[in-house]
Write a structure and sequence with these properties.
The chain is 59% helix and 0% strand. It has 11 helices and no strands. The protein is elongated and about 55 Å long.
Length: 211
């Protein structure tokens, strides 16, 4: 795929959704961090349902620590992997209190040192909370990047590096939001909705599903 086509693709995605945002519900960088941590192998809808009640009683690291692992578990037990996630939430909150003055750090290494926080989660936090032009590659972005040929790669890191190289600078800040939403609602896994896709004519997928 050439640079001109990529430019057109992101221009159309921006026209379709001018100001994209995460579908996770949060009111602070701390809540964003916890929600992203909880969202691994879970839907944003399920996370939002659980955190609405959780954040009503624990919206700071200190309050979350006061709940303890058992208390956190009760609020998130409807989310997949809730036992390990409860442990990670409490361990993360302890580090935030002890090492970062209860603030979410604006630093990749510090973020990735938090239990349950990997490169993808760190990219989300750096992008949304601190305005870094990072691109967090999840299953949706991986699929869309390979299917459309915007940035094909054999693993998430390769796709991330290609996106950072190929996505025009003016679109880089919001690129991961556009690609996630496109993969979540249009370029879905089993039967992509090519007939209603705003970039169907630019996409290089060979097996378009256009009715």
């Amino acid at each position: 795929m050439n640079a001109h086509k990529r430019q057109q693709i992101f221009a159309r995605l921006r026209e379709h959704i001018e100001q994209p945002r995460s579908e996770l519900e949060y009111r602070s960088n701390f809540e964003l961090l916890i929600s992203v941590l909880l969202s691994a192998q879970a839907t944003d809808v399920s996370v939002n349902k659980a955190t609405a009640k959780l954040y009503a009683v624990a919206d700071t690291p200190a309050k979350m620590l006061a709940l303890g692992e058992t208390g956190v578990r009760e609020y998130i037990k409807t989310i997949g992997l809730f036992n390990s996630k409860a442990r990670n939430v409490i361990a993360t909150c302890r580090i935030l209190v002890d090492r970062h003055g209860s603030e979410v750090p604006d630093d990749r290494a510090a973020l990735e040192a938090l239990p349950g926080v990997g490169r993808k989660t760190a990219n989300v936090i750096l992008n949304i909370a601190f305005g870094h032009p990072t691109i967090a590659v999840d299953t949706h972005i991986f699929r869309v990047s390979n299917r459309t040929r915007i940035a094909p790669g054999k693993d998430v890191l390769e796709v991330e590096k290609k996106l950072l190289k190929f996505v025009p600078r003016e679109f880089r800040q919001d690129a991961h939001h556009w690609l996630i939403l496109h993969g979540r609602y249009t370029c879905i896994a089993r039967r992509p909705r090519c007939g209603s896709c705003v970039i169907a004519d630019l996409c290089e997928y060979r097996h378009k599903n256009i009715d």
